[in-house]
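Hi V.,

Quick status before I head out on leave. The structure for the redesign project is tokenized and pasted below; the design run finished overnight.
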């Protein structure tokens, strides 16, 4: 099989959560360009999600918009069900939805903040994955890619400890699924470093972003497209012998 054939996703259906902006949008475009039909999930970013779908169609591919609050079981189930109703199959699931919610040291973190952070980052992935598993198995060549964070390694700097804990749980969830679902479904995770997206525009001061650039051996922060390329590898036949792995895409800022 040639390299082009290994990266070809024609005939595949992918579901990307949190795909209206940032890493999710870049991933939807990358998988679409490789030939996949993409389910673009969003919660609040309706305008951005429509823009992402327009961009997918401009590539000659197609997709569907799926709005839902994934912290609740019925809406989480519904996005899988609606995608299956449209395409009849699901081959690739990218659990990308997540947010810091609020920066606070653990001693200042409220129980409400803790629950919200776990729901957005971990419970959402659990609910969507659970609903998706039978369809991923039925494809005979399913893929799950979980998007983590550099916070898993740092413990969550600047008051992101609850976020780090949630993403750490998602890392363990990845290894559990890798054991339970292989060989029909391969499960891996990606740990992005500091990526220039709206996430950091909201949660990180510009001065700190400049510090991150100086601290990174490559001398810059990453782009969403660079993370999307790692997702493409894991979602395609190029990653056919990769299971239970965590791939760092961080410019060498924190090497394991």
């Amino acid at each position: 099989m040639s390299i082009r054939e290994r990266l070809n996703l024609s005939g595949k259906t992918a579901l990307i959560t949190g795909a209206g902006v940032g890493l999710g949008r870049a991933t939807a475009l990358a998988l679409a360009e490789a030939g996949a039909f993409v389910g673009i999930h969003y919660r609040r970013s309706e305008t951005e999600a429509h823009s992402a779908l327009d961009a997918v169609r401009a590539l000659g591919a197609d997709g569907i918009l799926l709005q839902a609050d994934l912290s609740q079981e019925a809406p989480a189930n519904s996005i899988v069900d609606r995608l299956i109703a449209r395409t009849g199959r699901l081959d690739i699931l990218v659990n990308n939805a997540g947010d810091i919610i609020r920066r606070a040291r653990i001693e200042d973190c409220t129980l409400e903040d803790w629950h919200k952070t776990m729901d957005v980052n971990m419970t959402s992935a659990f609910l969507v994955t659970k609903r998706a598993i039978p369809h991923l198995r039925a494809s005979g060549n399913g893929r799950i890619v979980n998007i983590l964070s550099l916070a898993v390694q740092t413990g969550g700097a600047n008051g992101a400890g609850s976020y780090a804990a949630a993403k750490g749980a998602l890392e363990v969830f990845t290894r559990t699924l890798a054991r339970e679902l292989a060989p029909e479904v391969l499960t891996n995770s990606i740990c992005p470093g500091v990526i220039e997206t709206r996430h950091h525009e909201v949660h990180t001061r510009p001065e700190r972003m400049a510090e991150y650039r100086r601290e990174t051996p490559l001398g810059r922060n990453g782009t969403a497209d660079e993370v999307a390329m790692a997702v493409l590898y894991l979602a395609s036949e190029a990653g056919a012998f990769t299971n239970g792995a965590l791939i760092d895409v961080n410019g060498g800022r924190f090497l394991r």
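Above is the designed sequence. The chain has one domain: 3-248.

G. will cover questions while I'm gone.

Best,
W.
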